[in-house]
Amino acid sequence: xxxxxxxxxxxxxxxxVPDARLIEPTDALVRITRACICGxxxxxxxxxxxxxxxxxxxxxxxxxxxAVGSEVRTVKKGDLVVAPFAWSxxxxxxxxxxxxxxxxxxxxxxGTELDGGQGEAVRVPLADGTLVxxxxxxxHALMPSLLTxxxxxxxxxxxxxxxxxxxxKIAAVVGDGAVGLCGVxxxxxxxxxxxxxxxxxxxxxxxxxxxxxxxxxxxRGDAAVERxxxxxxxxxxxxxxxxxxxxxxxxxxxxxxxxGGAVGRVGVPQTATMPAAQATFxxxxxxxGGPAPVRAYMxxxxxxxLEGRIEPGRVFxxxxxxxxxxxxxxxxxxxxxxxxMIAF
Length: 344
Ligand SMILES: [Zn+2]
Known about the structure:
Elements: E1 2-8, E2 11-16, E3 28-36, H1 42-47, E4 55-56, E5 61-68, E6 80-83, E7 86-87, H2 93-96, E8 107-108, E9 121-124, H3 127-130, E10 132-133, H4 143-147, H5 152-162, E11 170-174, H6 178-189, E12 194-198, H7 202-211, E13 215-217, H8 221-231, E14 237-242, H9 247-256, E15 257-265, H10 277-282, E16 286-289, H11 294-306, E17 318-320, H12 325-333, E18 340-343
Parallel strand pairs: 11-12, 11-14, 12-13, 14-15, 15-16, 17-18
Antiparallel strand pairs: 1-2, 1-4, 3-5, 3-9, 3-18, 5-6, 6-10, 7-8
Helix pairs in contact: 5-6, 5-11, 6-7, 8-9
The structure holds zinc ion (ZN).
Protein backbone atom coordinates (compact mmCIF):
# COMPACT_ATOMS: atom_id res chain seq x y z
CA UNK A 1 0.00 0.00 0.00
CA UNK A 2 1.04 3.64 -0.24
CA UNK A 3 1.47 6.01 2.68
CA UNK A 4 3.07 9.28 3.76
CA UNK A 5 6.50 9.10 5.38
CA UNK A 6 8.46 12.04 6.79
CA UNK A 7 12.23 11.66 6.60
CA UNK A 8 13.24 15.04 7.98
CA UNK A 9 12.39 18.73 7.90
CA UNK A 10 10.67 19.60 4.59
CA UNK A 11 11.15 16.01 3.40
CA UNK A 12 7.73 14.34 3.09
CA UNK A 13 7.36 11.44 0.66
CA UNK A 14 4.52 9.22 -0.46
CA UNK A 15 5.85 5.73 -0.95
CA UNK A 16 5.08 2.04 -0.87
CA VAL A 17 5.07 0.53 2.64
CA PRO A 18 4.08 -2.91 4.00
CA ASP A 19 0.32 -3.50 3.78
CA ALA A 20 -1.68 -2.80 6.94
CA ARG A 21 -3.04 -6.06 8.39
CA LEU A 22 -4.69 -7.45 11.49
CA ILE A 23 -2.20 -8.53 14.15
CA GLU A 24 -4.07 -8.62 17.48
CA PRO A 25 -7.60 -10.03 17.95
CA THR A 26 -8.68 -6.55 19.12
CA ASP A 27 -7.56 -4.87 15.85
CA ALA A 28 -9.59 -3.53 12.95
CA LEU A 29 -8.26 -3.02 9.44
CA VAL A 30 -9.53 0.28 8.05
CA ARG A 31 -9.33 1.38 4.41
CA ILE A 32 -8.99 5.18 4.56
CA THR A 33 -11.53 7.30 2.67
CA ARG A 34 -10.67 10.75 4.12
CA ALA A 35 -7.70 12.05 6.08
CA CYS A 36 -5.97 15.36 6.61
CA ILE A 37 -2.82 17.24 7.49
CA CYS A 38 -2.64 18.75 10.99
CA GLY A 39 -1.08 21.98 12.20
CA UNK A 40 0.86 19.81 14.65
CA UNK A 41 2.38 17.91 11.68
CA UNK A 42 4.10 21.19 10.84
CA UNK A 43 6.25 21.07 13.99
CA UNK A 44 8.26 18.05 12.75
CA UNK A 45 7.94 19.39 9.19
CA UNK A 46 10.07 22.33 10.30
CA UNK A 47 12.34 20.67 12.82
CA UNK A 48 12.73 16.90 12.30
CA UNK A 49 16.31 15.65 12.24
CA UNK A 50 17.07 13.60 9.11
CA UNK A 51 16.12 9.94 9.59
CA UNK A 52 16.87 6.91 7.43
CA UNK A 53 13.75 5.00 8.53
CA UNK A 54 11.34 7.94 8.52
CA UNK A 55 8.09 8.42 10.44
CA UNK A 56 4.67 7.41 9.18
CA UNK A 57 2.39 10.43 9.33
CA UNK A 58 -1.26 11.25 9.94
CA UNK A 59 -3.55 10.93 12.93
CA UNK A 60 -6.95 12.08 11.63
CA UNK A 61 -8.99 9.77 9.43
CA UNK A 62 -12.29 8.28 8.39
CA UNK A 63 -12.45 4.92 6.66
CA UNK A 64 -14.29 1.70 5.92
CA UNK A 65 -13.63 -1.37 8.03
CA UNK A 66 -12.34 -4.20 5.84
CA ALA A 67 -11.82 -6.76 8.60
CA VAL A 68 -11.91 -7.09 12.38
CA GLY A 69 -10.12 -9.38 14.82
CA SER A 70 -11.97 -12.12 16.67
CA GLU A 71 -12.47 -10.07 19.85
CA VAL A 72 -13.88 -6.90 18.25
CA ARG A 73 -17.51 -6.34 19.24
CA THR A 74 -18.68 -2.74 18.71
CA VAL A 75 -17.75 -2.24 15.04
CA LYS A 76 -17.88 -4.61 12.08
CA LYS A 77 -16.77 -5.10 8.49
CA GLY A 78 -18.38 -2.51 6.22
CA ASP A 79 -18.82 0.17 8.92
CA LEU A 80 -17.67 3.69 8.12
CA VAL A 81 -15.72 4.84 11.17
CA VAL A 82 -13.97 7.93 12.47
CA ALA A 83 -10.83 7.59 14.57
CA PRO A 84 -9.59 9.95 17.29
CA PHE A 85 -5.96 11.12 17.12
CA ALA A 86 -5.03 8.71 19.92
CA TRP A 87 -6.22 5.10 20.25
CA SER A 88 -7.49 3.75 23.56
CA UNK A 89 -9.15 0.73 25.15
CA UNK A 90 -12.21 2.58 26.45
CA UNK A 91 -12.21 0.56 29.67
CA UNK A 92 -9.27 1.59 31.87
CA UNK A 93 -9.35 4.01 34.80
CA UNK A 94 -8.55 7.03 32.61
CA UNK A 95 -10.79 6.10 29.66
CA UNK A 96 -13.74 5.73 32.04
CA UNK A 97 -13.16 9.24 33.33
CA UNK A 98 -13.06 10.58 29.76
CA UNK A 99 -9.30 11.02 29.48
CA UNK A 100 -8.61 8.60 26.65
CA UNK A 101 -5.34 10.35 25.72
CA UNK A 102 -3.94 8.94 29.00
CA UNK A 103 -5.25 5.41 28.34
CA UNK A 104 -3.05 2.90 30.14
CA UNK A 105 -3.03 0.64 27.05
CA UNK A 106 -3.40 3.28 24.34
CA UNK A 107 -1.05 5.18 22.10
CA UNK A 108 -0.56 7.41 19.08
CA UNK A 109 -0.72 6.77 15.36
CA UNK A 110 2.26 6.69 13.05
CA GLY A 111 5.92 6.96 13.94
CA THR A 112 8.07 3.92 13.25
CA GLU A 113 5.81 1.21 14.71
CA LEU A 114 2.25 1.91 13.56
CA ASP A 115 0.37 2.96 10.45
CA GLY A 116 -0.55 6.63 10.08
CA GLY A 117 -3.72 8.19 8.76
CA GLN A 118 -2.09 9.73 5.69
CA GLY A 119 -2.02 6.41 3.87
CA GLU A 120 -4.31 3.95 2.14
CA ALA A 121 -5.03 1.77 5.18
CA VAL A 122 -4.44 1.53 8.92
CA ARG A 123 -4.30 -1.23 11.48
CA VAL A 124 -6.39 0.14 14.35
CA PRO A 125 -5.40 -1.32 17.73
CA LEU A 126 -8.15 -1.63 20.40
CA ALA A 127 -10.85 -1.02 17.80
CA ASP A 128 -13.74 -1.27 20.29
CA GLY A 129 -12.44 1.55 22.45
CA THR A 130 -11.09 3.67 19.62
CA LEU A 131 -13.50 3.78 16.68
CA VAL A 132 -16.90 5.39 16.35
CA UNK A 133 -19.23 4.21 13.57
CA UNK A 134 -20.83 6.93 11.44
CA UNK A 135 -24.47 6.66 10.32
CA UNK A 136 -23.74 7.97 6.80
CA UNK A 137 -22.03 6.79 3.62
CA UNK A 138 -18.36 7.52 2.75
CA UNK A 139 -19.18 10.32 0.29
CA HIS A 140 -21.78 12.12 2.40
CA ALA A 141 -21.66 15.92 2.18
CA LEU A 142 -20.82 16.13 5.89
CA MET A 143 -17.46 14.32 5.47
CA PRO A 144 -15.31 17.43 6.11
CA SER A 145 -17.10 18.24 9.36
CA LEU A 146 -17.13 14.59 10.47
CA LEU A 147 -13.38 14.40 9.82
CA THR A 148 -12.75 17.29 12.23
CA UNK A 149 -14.07 15.08 15.04
CA UNK A 150 -10.74 13.21 14.73
CA UNK A 151 -8.89 16.18 16.11
CA UNK A 152 -9.46 19.88 15.51
CA UNK A 153 -13.13 20.19 16.53
CA UNK A 154 -12.62 18.00 19.59
CA UNK A 155 -9.43 19.88 20.41
CA UNK A 156 -11.11 23.29 20.12
CA UNK A 157 -13.89 21.95 22.32
CA UNK A 158 -11.37 20.70 24.88
CA UNK A 159 -9.75 24.15 24.99
CA UNK A 160 -13.16 25.70 25.67
CA UNK A 161 -14.00 23.14 28.37
CA UNK A 162 -10.59 23.57 30.03
CA UNK A 163 -11.04 27.36 29.88
CA UNK A 164 -14.43 26.91 31.58
CA UNK A 165 -16.44 28.67 28.89
CA UNK A 166 -20.06 29.07 30.01
CA UNK A 167 -23.10 31.20 29.21
CA UNK A 168 -22.53 34.91 29.76
CA LYS A 169 -18.74 34.68 29.86
CA ILE A 170 -16.19 36.49 27.71
CA ALA A 171 -13.96 34.04 25.85
CA ALA A 172 -10.76 34.86 23.99
CA VAL A 173 -9.15 32.56 21.42
CA VAL A 174 -5.41 32.84 20.79
CA GLY A 175 -4.53 31.44 17.36
CA ASP A 176 -6.41 31.49 14.06
CA GLY A 177 -5.43 28.03 12.82
CA ALA A 178 -7.97 25.25 12.39
CA VAL A 179 -8.00 24.51 16.14
CA GLY A 180 -8.51 28.17 17.07
CA LEU A 181 -11.34 28.43 14.55
CA CYS A 182 -12.96 25.32 16.02
CA GLY A 183 -12.37 26.88 19.44
CA VAL A 184 -14.60 29.76 18.34
CA UNK A 185 -17.31 27.26 17.34
CA UNK A 186 -16.93 25.52 20.71
CA UNK A 187 -17.02 28.75 22.72
CA UNK A 188 -20.20 29.82 20.98
CA UNK A 189 -21.70 26.37 21.40
CA UNK A 190 -21.02 26.52 25.15
CA UNK A 191 -22.73 29.90 25.40
CA UNK A 192 -19.98 32.51 25.54
CA UNK A 193 -21.47 35.99 25.36
CA UNK A 194 -18.48 37.51 23.59
CA UNK A 195 -15.71 35.77 21.70
CA UNK A 196 -12.51 37.71 21.02
CA UNK A 197 -10.38 36.19 18.24
CA UNK A 198 -6.68 36.98 18.31
CA UNK A 199 -5.34 36.41 14.81
CA UNK A 200 -3.89 38.17 11.81
CA UNK A 201 -4.86 36.33 8.63
CA UNK A 202 -7.80 38.02 6.87
CA UNK A 203 -9.36 34.82 5.49
CA UNK A 204 -9.19 33.08 8.85
CA UNK A 205 -10.59 36.08 10.71
CA UNK A 206 -13.51 36.21 8.28
CA UNK A 207 -14.25 32.54 8.98
CA UNK A 208 -13.89 33.11 12.74
CA UNK A 209 -16.51 35.87 12.51
CA UNK A 210 -18.86 33.55 10.65
CA UNK A 211 -18.29 30.95 13.38
CA UNK A 212 -19.24 33.47 16.07
CA UNK A 213 -16.25 35.69 16.94
CA UNK A 214 -17.61 39.06 18.07
CA UNK A 215 -14.30 40.96 18.27
CA UNK A 216 -10.99 40.64 16.44
CA UNK A 217 -7.57 41.59 17.81
CA UNK A 218 -4.84 41.55 15.18
CA UNK A 219 -2.09 43.10 17.27
CA ARG A 220 0.54 40.90 18.90
CA GLY A 221 2.37 40.86 22.23
CA ASP A 222 1.81 43.77 24.63
CA ALA A 223 -0.36 45.61 22.10
CA ALA A 224 -2.71 42.61 21.89
CA VAL A 225 -2.94 42.41 25.68
CA GLU A 226 -3.79 46.09 25.82
CA ARG A 227 -6.49 45.74 23.15
CA UNK A 228 -8.16 42.84 24.97
CA UNK A 229 -8.09 44.79 28.23
CA UNK A 230 -9.67 47.72 26.40
CA UNK A 231 -12.42 45.46 25.06
CA UNK A 232 -13.17 44.00 28.50
CA UNK A 233 -13.44 47.10 30.67
CA UNK A 234 -9.81 46.66 31.74
CA UNK A 235 -10.55 43.27 33.34
CA UNK A 236 -9.55 40.64 30.78
CA UNK A 237 -11.39 37.55 29.52
CA UNK A 238 -12.97 34.91 31.76
CA UNK A 239 -11.92 32.08 29.48
CA UNK A 240 -8.86 31.99 27.24
CA UNK A 241 -8.30 29.24 24.66
CA UNK A 242 -4.58 28.87 23.83
CA UNK A 243 -4.46 27.16 20.43
CA UNK A 244 -0.87 27.71 19.26
CA UNK A 245 1.76 26.50 21.74
CA UNK A 246 4.50 29.10 21.25
CA UNK A 247 5.98 30.79 24.32
CA UNK A 248 4.75 34.12 22.97
CA UNK A 249 1.15 32.97 22.41
CA UNK A 250 1.10 31.35 25.85
CA UNK A 251 2.31 34.60 27.42
CA UNK A 252 -0.43 36.50 25.58
CA UNK A 253 -3.06 33.96 26.67
CA UNK A 254 -1.99 34.13 30.32
CA UNK A 255 -1.85 37.93 30.20
CA UNK A 256 -5.40 38.44 28.90
CA UNK A 257 -7.12 36.19 31.46
CA UNK A 258 -8.87 38.14 34.21
CA UNK A 259 -8.24 37.35 37.90
CA GLY A 260 -9.98 34.09 38.69
CA GLY A 261 -10.14 33.25 34.98
CA ALA A 262 -9.00 30.09 33.22
CA VAL A 263 -6.68 29.34 30.32
CA GLY A 264 -7.33 26.13 28.36
CA ARG A 265 -4.19 25.18 26.47
CA VAL A 266 -4.26 22.74 23.57
CA GLY A 267 -1.34 24.03 21.48
CA VAL A 268 1.56 21.60 21.97
CA PRO A 269 4.07 23.64 24.04
CA GLN A 270 7.21 24.40 22.08
CA THR A 271 9.04 25.62 25.18
CA ALA A 272 9.83 23.74 28.39
CA THR A 273 8.83 26.52 30.76
CA MET A 274 5.56 28.35 31.38
CA PRO A 275 5.75 32.17 31.26
CA ALA A 276 4.13 34.59 33.72
CA ALA A 277 4.43 32.31 36.75
CA GLN A 278 4.15 35.18 39.25
CA ALA A 279 1.43 37.22 37.52
CA THR A 280 -0.82 34.17 37.09
CA PHE A 281 -0.20 33.15 40.71
CA UNK A 282 -1.32 36.51 42.10
CA UNK A 283 -4.36 36.57 39.78
CA UNK A 284 -5.48 33.03 40.71
CA UNK A 285 -5.50 31.99 37.06
CA UNK A 286 -6.44 28.36 36.40
CA UNK A 287 -4.19 26.81 33.77
CA UNK A 288 -5.67 23.61 32.38
CA GLY A 289 -5.72 21.54 29.21
CA GLY A 290 -3.43 19.21 27.30
CA PRO A 291 -3.93 16.75 24.46
CA ALA A 292 -7.68 16.67 23.92
CA PRO A 293 -9.43 13.39 24.73
CA VAL A 294 -11.39 13.81 21.49
CA ARG A 295 -12.77 10.27 21.81
CA ALA A 296 -14.68 11.46 24.90
CA TYR A 297 -16.38 14.23 22.91
CA MET A 298 -17.15 12.36 19.68
CA UNK A 299 -20.72 11.24 20.29
CA UNK A 300 -21.79 14.66 21.59
CA UNK A 301 -20.16 16.66 18.77
CA UNK A 302 -21.23 14.09 16.15
CA UNK A 303 -24.85 14.83 16.97
CA UNK A 304 -24.32 18.57 16.43
CA UNK A 305 -22.61 17.94 13.09
CA LEU A 306 -25.32 15.55 11.88
CA GLU A 307 -28.05 17.97 12.87
CA GLY A 308 -26.27 20.90 11.22
CA ARG A 309 -25.75 22.99 14.36
CA ILE A 310 -22.01 23.28 13.78
CA GLU A 311 -20.02 23.23 10.54
CA PRO A 312 -16.36 22.78 11.52
CA GLY A 313 -15.55 21.21 8.14
CA ARG A 314 -15.34 24.74 6.75
CA VAL A 315 -11.75 24.88 8.08
CA PHE A 316 -10.75 22.71 5.11
CA UNK A 317 -9.90 25.06 2.24
CA UNK A 318 -7.99 22.61 0.06
CA UNK A 319 -8.46 18.99 -1.02
CA UNK A 320 -5.77 16.75 -2.44
CA UNK A 321 -5.19 13.11 -3.30
CA UNK A 322 -2.46 11.09 -1.61
CA UNK A 323 0.17 12.15 -4.17
CA UNK A 324 -0.49 15.79 -3.34
CA UNK A 325 0.27 15.38 0.37
CA UNK A 326 3.87 16.73 0.24
CA UNK A 327 2.57 19.89 -1.47
CA UNK A 328 -0.23 20.03 1.11
CA UNK A 329 2.38 20.25 3.87
CA UNK A 330 4.12 23.04 1.98
CA UNK A 331 0.87 24.93 1.45
CA UNK A 332 -0.11 24.73 5.12
CA UNK A 333 3.41 25.65 6.22
CA UNK A 334 3.38 28.74 4.00
CA UNK A 335 -0.12 29.65 5.28
CA UNK A 336 -1.48 29.25 1.77
CA UNK A 337 -4.03 26.79 3.17
CA UNK A 338 -5.70 26.62 6.58
CA UNK A 339 -6.14 22.84 6.52
CA UNK A 340 -5.75 20.28 3.77
CA MET A 341 -8.09 17.31 3.37
CA ILE A 342 -6.90 14.14 1.65
CA ALA A 343 -9.56 12.31 -0.37
CA PHE A 344 -8.84 8.74 -1.49
ZN1 LIG B 1 -7.92 3.22 28.54
